[in-house]
User: Fold these one by one.
Assistant:
Number 1:
Amino acid sequence: MKRIFSLYIIREISSLFLLSMAVFTLVMLLGRLLKLTDLVITRGVPLADVGRMVVYLMPSLLVFTIPMAFLLAVLLAFGRLSADNEITVMKAGGVSLVQLMPPVLACGIVAMLMTLAASTLGVPWGNNAFKRLSFQVLKQNVALTIREKVFWDDIPGIVLYTDHYDEERHIIKGVIIHDGRDPKRPLTIFASSGTVGSSPNQQDIYLVLHNGSIHAAGKNEYRLVNFDQYVMTVTNPGKNGVIGSNEQDMTISELRRQIAAPATQKEQRLKMQAELNARFAFPFAALVFAVVAMPLGMQNRRSGKSAGFSTSIAVLLAYYVLLSLLRTLAEKGTLPPGLALWLPNMIFLAVGWQLLRMASLEQSIIPIIQDAFVRLADKVRQP
């Protein structure tokens, strides 16, 4: 009998999980799709390249959508079971809430492993591949990306402004360029005219500038160089052909190696430690949500799916706000990264266990929440 109940709950959660994950992923992808569609319409980028970009973006989206979808699936599943009095029937048959937890935890472990794979393996692979392909597309279509009287910043560290741009001959006039690729010595370049293009092997983007000046400001120095012609080559400065590689693009082994390196600055080391802990702490949230969502879902017996959705949004918002706050403190060195990134999971796990205990004792959670809001409102009104 218990095996039948377990399979029934797993089937209920799985169907809602797959549907929720598809919806959440599509919603998060819509903002990116607008920009990717612009590549096809205005720059003539092949649909195959755009499709590859979407694939490369998927791991970074799945890291968020899998825990979100699992939380909503458990809330809706137990909300329906409670509304149809199926939970009551199970209890009458001698099945306690503790005995209903194993199938929910089994689904949570699957969701956790999926998120862990996306976080540790998929994100660095997808980010690096996406940046490589983006730079390749940019090199092949650089002449189509520049617009006159618009700041062009498609390449990290470089901002270009031009008063006039001849799209047929690729000639720019009234040029201002800020080159901040070297933070210790940024350059500001003024030129009356120039041409833009890419090298024959499509490996470099170059700007041939005429009649201008280069202003270089260092820590304790300032240099001015006038030129009749200056060729500015924009090559791919990142590791493995990736522009602007950062801690989010590193694999687990690379993060650990950079953290242990004596040459790594303290600020960068803290960011890498926070990222390393986040790669493992965030997937564990799916398992935590299993404990939190089950008793909360049983409270929505009359409110239906709308209450389950609003509850999931509230839980996710609280979790992500707390996680973002603690991660900021970890990156500033206020809290140890290991403690800061795992603390939200510990807090929500304790809250979920208490909610589960109250649900097993047939205690309603809603009056307690309402009482807490009343007390908070009274304190706010007090002078």
Number 2:
Amino acid sequence: MVFTKKNEEAVSPVIGVILMVAVTVILAAIIAAFVFGMAGNIQSSKTVAVTLQRTNTTWILATNMGGADANSLYGVNWTINGVADTTYIWTGTPIAVGAQKYVLVPTGSKITAIGMFNDGSNQVILDKIL
């Protein structure tokens, strides 16, 4: 009579250990990224409101309505139908809440207002077709 020894061990304990080590390494990398500031360079967006009102077929009136970051807004550049318009750059130190600016814009044009802030950042604050 031949006796065979049945091996009850399988590969699963080895795979389990490998998976636990992999999870530990990934968690350590994520924690290190936050601790050492590698994920901290995300820039926050500014909160400023500018409204546009068409006064006739060629002119619009832009009004600074304020916002949480209104005190840091010192300029607005305009693009009309994708072309930068340097004629009507709106500047101030800062641009006062309630301040208004007339801009020459033909009917049906796409207007984009790009706010310039005192920390050196630029951000689209209005994108509209009038």
Number 3:
Amino acid sequence: MSASPHNYRNLLEAVNSLRSRGYDYDFHFEEACLHCSKIGESFTPDDLKITEYYRFEGMSDPEDNVVVYAIESNNGHKGVIIDAYGAYSDEHKSAFLSQIKVED
């Protein structure tokens, strides 16, 4: 699968589309892993794959520079995580995400 099979105008459109396609969970980076509060599980990079991702650049505000990742766990949990890039990025979160395999 292509990393970006759809074209979205904004972050909200991308997230809504992913939700409609079964990416129901919200992943949060904490303590060197991705955590999903809804199911009470934590995941390492080896437990996950990135199935799609979309980058959005704010036209006038650098705080709007984000990437939304569609992620699936080895046990079938599908969700999203949003990461800023540029001046507002979390280097630990970005480093963690870079370790997750991107599905072809």
